[in-house]
User: Fold this.
Amino acid sequence: MSNQDRDEQDKRRLHGVAEQVLKMFAGDMYTLRQQRGVSDEEMKAVYALAHGYYRAGRLDEAEQAFLFLCLFEHLESKYWIGLGAVQQRKRDYAKALASYSYASVIDFKNPRALYYGAECHLALGHLDDAQETLSALLAVCPSDTEEGRTWRARAEQLQAQVERLQQRTPDAPQA
Assistant:
């Protein structure tokens, strides 16, 4: 095969990849789940498995299952929250924070991702970041629903804890 033929073949391949990416953004192949034909029932079964592993303390298995879910349905915040919960329970707070942050980008008004992200900031000693995250939660969380009031109360309790810690260590460096 000549160089010209190889170049032409590479151009066709690149054009094909670009076309696939454009289709993904246009909605034709919105997620890997859709591209691979994984059904809603199969995703629910994997979620149930992941949740069961989490409850049973089988955190490595739970993490793998949640990673699968996040990869195949990257725009579903509950999968990222599940992954973050596993990572937080494993005390890998930086990874958990990344997972919660992604969940929060997908669904900014979901108080869970913000609250658990604040817990991770607190565990890492990032008191100012924890405070900012809790302030964001309080700004977006509704006060006119039972769920909203519950999360607001939890956030206010954690915020008071963060404030007490900030008063004890006013000159501590904030990462």
About this structure: The chain has one domain: 31-168. The chain has a mean pLDDT of 87.
